[in-house]
Amino acid sequence: MRRSIGVLDGVAIAASSTAATTSIGIGLTAMAMVVGPHLPAILLLGFLPILCVAGAYTRLNRVEPNAGNTYVWVGRSLNPWLGFLSGWTMIVATVAFLAYTTAVTGSAILQTVRMAGVEAVAGLVLDPGSTAQSVLVGVAVLAGVTLTAVTGLRSAARFQGALLVFEYAVLLGFLGYGLAVGPNPFSLDWFNPFALPSATVLAQGLLLSVFCYWGFEAAFSVSEEVREPGDASRAGLLTLFSTLGLFLFGSVAFQRVLSEDELTASGPEGLAVFAGHLADQPLAALPLVALMFSAVASLQSGVIPTARGMFAMSRDRTLGPLWSRVSPRFGTPAAGTLVLGAVAAGVAVLSLVIPRLVDVIVATVNSVGILVALVYVLTALAAATRFRGLLRESPWAGVRAVVLPLVGASVVLGITGYLCWTYATSTDRFAVHPDNGWFLLSIPAVMIASGIATGAWARWVRRSPYFLRDAGTAPSEEPAPSPSR
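Now predict its structure.
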């Protein structure tokens, strides 16, 4: 694939994947229902283990920049089966996420169009609450962003960059104004983690906080297409720190403007309620437009890294040859990108005629955090294993390369264990419903089982050389040289 993009392009892709506007608009109020007015404290605490995990991504990317990132690193440093399952489960989870986000994006667009005064098109009354209309509009958007992704990362990054500029301009404008004029007094107690009422509240808050940062690793999926491999690492870390800044800014601004009761009662309408306190229509509608742009960018940022992960897996013959075909015109895995978008669109459309499929999609999105956390843990363990020799050679380098990733992995694993325990004890019977804990746990189990079956096919039918590797085949611990120009 062509090396054609720089740090800022990588930031645009990763920032769109983290979708800070959506997290602030929807996630902050959900988090406030758990931790009350201590949003800044819990967001800071959740950032620390993710920063440790990001350090593992960065160091591994230095020695082995690869579109497959975790799939390759875990496979070589720990075990090929664990590496394959990391790649496979994220593919299946992303397809479900894309199908879900397709409908959400369509609904947001219909809401925005109605707010602009257009209530019907060709005699059809536009209804944001209509699943059919939302899915069809969303599929059209998914097709558009998939085609943009096919034409190359530069055009995709520029498209996402334009959306981000608008999103952040609206977001920072409203948050800054709210911070300045909000009626509630600022309190340092908001940043005090010791003010949280109980260990249970701390654990639940950390769980929500950690998953707000999911998506920064999208920068590492394009490490074979940036001009310098280190640009991917810089893009990932820049995205992570800028996301932290936005979250802290947003949480303080929300608590300056909204009372604690309003904060916890707003639900997914948090950003709209916040904007309604600060402006009248039509200005108050701008945050909804920003949310719509965030959803569109999330669709594309789901397609790009997943297609590259499948490219790396196909290159190792763990997936079929279709996924590693590179377009001679665009220098991208065009065929795989198109098929991935088509599969996600097909799942979204099938959900219109298979009622239970909607429950499966929503449950997958709700439980995907378990899989993401496990991938983070495995990546951190891969870094600690590969670089363990640094503990003898350079204690400080060993702390950064081994100890900190292990600390981050331990915290994330503990949080994930708590989530699984919560799901398991939340009910005493199984039901196909996105609120049923046993059903939520069954989704990751099915994904892993399907990965084992697919891996067995790749190992013994395709005879993929990937499964014949061991830790001794890992490249050296020295940083990879820059590509020749």
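Strands lie at 120-121, 124-125.
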